[in-house]
Amino acid sequence: MSLQNNPVVWFEIPAVDIARAKRFYEAAFGVELTLSEMGPAKMASFPMQQGSAGAAGALVCGEGYTPSLDGIRAYLHVADIDAVLAKVNENGGQTLLTKTSIGQHGSIAHFCDTEENRVSLHEAPRN
Fold first, then answer.
1. What's the number of domains the chain is made of?
2. Contact, 17 vs 116, CB < 8 A?
3. Which of 15, 41, 75, 103 could crosslink 122 through cysteines, CB 3.0-4.6 Å?
4. Is the pLDDT of residue 34 over 50?
5. Are 72 and 66 in contact (CB under 8 A)?
6. Does 38 reside within a domain?
7. Contact between 85 and 59 (Cβ < 8 Å)
8. Residue 5: inside a domain
9. What is the C-alpha to C-alpha distance for residues 53 and 62, in angstroms, rounded to an integer?
10. What's the rounded mean pLDDT across residues 22-40?
């Protein structure tokens, strides 16, 4: 296998209540998620642009999707971690790790969403 691009192409965040999870992510990140169904699974997809850098993904409610604070971590890129964490906390989430420097690579933070998933944030270094 030859990886010529970033290796992550899709992410899925488990949800128990797709409507609640959709409201939370829309409020915390200021985006509109699109509802759909794939077989028995319900999904709320994040906005994406074909041909752009970065991975697309969705919230997923269905068999085999169990929210957890343990497991794979998806890092969502944001312009201002502190502003997003404020919205996370205002909308039913909880900060687990406040903004933390990772040196020349910027900063990260972790939060617990309304479905009890650990999700991470990344902010690019400021010049």
1. 1
2. no
3. 75
4. yes
5. no
6. yes
7. no
8. no
9. 28
10. 96
> Mean per-residue pLDDT for 24-49?
95
Take residue 37 and report the two structure tokens written for it.
């169904």
Sheet holding 56-61, edge to edge: 10-14, 56-61, 41-45, 34-38
| Contact status, residue 114 vs residue 21, Cβ threshold 8 Å | yes
Average pLDDT, the chain: 92
Query: What sign results for the dihedral spanned by CA atoms 9, 13, 17, 22?
Result: negative
pLDDT tens readout for residues 52-97: 888 899 999 999 999 999 988 889 999 999 999 999 999 999 999 9
Domain that holds residue 45: 10-123
- Kindly report the pTM of this predicted structure: 0.86
d(CA 42, CA 35): 7
At 14, the amino acid letter reads P
Residue 30 has pLDDT above 50, yes or no: yes
The CATH number of whichever domain residue 117 belongs to comes to 3.10.180.10
State both tokens at 42: 């319900």
Enter the DSSP assignment of 105: G
Domain annotation covers residue 92: yes
Residue 67 falls inside a structural domain? yes
